[in-house]
Amino acid sequence: MISTRTIIGGIEDVPREWIFEYYLNLKERLTGQDVKILSAFNSSDKVPSMFVYFDTMSGQYKFKDFSSGHQGDAIHLVTSLFNLGTFAHTVNKIVADYAAYLKDNNITATTEHQFHDKFKVTDYEIRHWTNLDEAYWMGYKIGSKLLEHYNVSPLDFFTMEKTELDGTVTSMTFNRKYVYGYFREDGSLYKIYMPKNPEKKFIKVENYTQGSDQLTSSSCDALIITSSLKDLMAFRKLGIKGYQSIAPDSENSMITKTGMHILKQRFGKVIVLFDNDEPGIAAAKKYQENYSVSYVVLDMEKDLSDSVKAHGLIKVKEKLVSLLDELDISR
Question: Of 10, 50, 148, 264, which is most buried with the most CB atoms under 10 A?
Fold first, then answer.
């Protein structure tokens, strides 16, 4: 329970929900649910790409804007929206705006978090591969053996359910072409990939570092961290000897400090290869700043798999090998 008062002493008296509601001009009160809106940082955003969500670990609302790469808590939101230089400037603005809001509205409000169950995948069925599937994946030079190696299977359908506040269950079943399940070695589903769905290409089922089940004990010079499983498989198709590869859940899902320590001990060299756009480069730089690892930018297409599709394996391999050579890593 959070109480707001007409007289506030500091930022601790400002409800974090109010910060998101006020500065993002939300049409609904935040009571524990997640909200998807158009990017507040990108005026050309046509499809909602900004998420305001309740983080159960911290007990506070946070946001992630996939269009611009901005993410964080309520303080980060205001800092980024108004390009404020310091924490103090941000806090002063929020406190002043909240005091004016209370005065103008003459209210005493309370906000209580209610339980909101998110949609979860509850059922699915694997189908046989088709010529359409083959044409899609072979466009990136990814064939059936590689898909099988990384446990990718086409899905006939999948069902998602959520429990509403009144106890009723809402269920939705999706049956469409170009839907693929990403599975672990033990057969558990960790992600659904829908490349032809521009609004939501991925549905996360559980946390998993992609490709970790396929890492071998054989000696190699370095580990490449790519931005997606598709990029990981495209990298494998390049056939650059001496490298293994993994992919976190997304570019914005940082591998933990402990996890990175283990990887650096095991492989010696770790190189990040994310998308060739502002969010991808920013995410790669964050890895460099936090973990002192190198990164390369493949300036051909948006990502590695798109580069392979547009330019072929030979040209992409030549370009990438050149970039890796600049890092003074022997193959």
Answer: 50
